[in-house]
């Protein structure tokens, strides 16, 4: 009698649960992507002196290029338009900085006097108020603070020296930003068309459209952030000036600069304004200042952001928070500043790259109400 055939042994991959096989397939692919991301970040960190100025120059170009294009459409030579816009921008920025510094120098003695008076009043309250502390305890606390500063004087000095040693890198970065902005404003579109040539012909047009869509989002982001920062600075600065808080204009300038770091910057600079109001004018004015900052932030969040940011650069708040946190961990303040515009650029570019109809997706995302450009970067016609 013939024996029944024995069942064949299952291959190794068939012996593993399908769920485990799928998880393993996802795992090694994710590990490869993670390794690629780490490699990119490592390269960026090595050439940070180049990457950061170019990124800042790209943001400045996104802010100024609508003005250059406007002059170009009205017959001005492209180079002359670039020179006029840059010189005007430097003149305005220099005038604002000069005015702010002069106001700071003028108001600093009064601020010191008011802070000193507040400290004296606080000491009197600690001695005569409910705390009933002795003057010896207060003086001991002050001496301890001074001694702590003296003990860490060497560290502070070495930190200042290390900061001074980076002066050359700062100057080099500033010059690189300046020249990069010039070339981006003059022929940035042609530069991108040249870069896109490294991609295969079959996807070159799609990559060009994706870069254009990403830069349109960057224009919208920078323009909206500038408007929001200006409104924040004007609103908070006016309130501080009406209340008579010292250094209202320098504080408003800090609010303007801090607003370029979404969520975090405005909160930090607003908190500084509250501290100054508390030290110089008391608790009531500090609470009023806090209420003013909250009101301006609500105006920004519910009216300005939806109105001027547009659909093309709308990002989920979680993406903004995680982007700022990740950028801050990787590159400090500069990383927090560049994280959100980078996410906005990549978001719009990927949507065009992955869309079935890139042209339709780009048209839907476009937020630039200026001219349309051909593949060579020439002005075709104005949008109607």
Structure in words:
The protein has one domain (48-151, 171-372). The chain has 13 helices and two strands. The protein has helices spanning 12-15, 18-46, 48-73, 78-128, 135-151, 153-165, 167-196, 201-243, 248-258, 264-281, 283-309, 317-353, 358-365, and strands at residues 371-373, 379-382. A two-stranded antiparallel sheet has the order 1-2. It starts with 11 loop residues before the first helix and ends with a strand.
Give the helices and strands, then pairings.
Elements: H1 12-15, H2 18-46, H3 48-73, H4 78-128, H5 135-151, H6 153-165, H7 167-196, H8 201-243, H9 248-258, H10 264-281, H11 283-309, H12 317-353, H13 358-365, E1 371-373, E2 379-382
Helix pairs in contact: 3-4, 3-7, 3-8, 7-8, 8-9, 8-11, 8-12, 8-13, 9-10, 10-11, 12-13
Main location: membrane
Region (Disordered): 363-384
Organism: Mycolicibacterium komossense
What can be said about this structure in brief?
The chain has 384 residues and is mostly helical. It has helices at 12-15, 18-46, 48-73, 78-128, 135-151, 153-165, 167-196, 201-243, 248-258, 264-281, 283-309, 317-353, 358-365; strands at 371-373, 379-382. The termini are far apart.
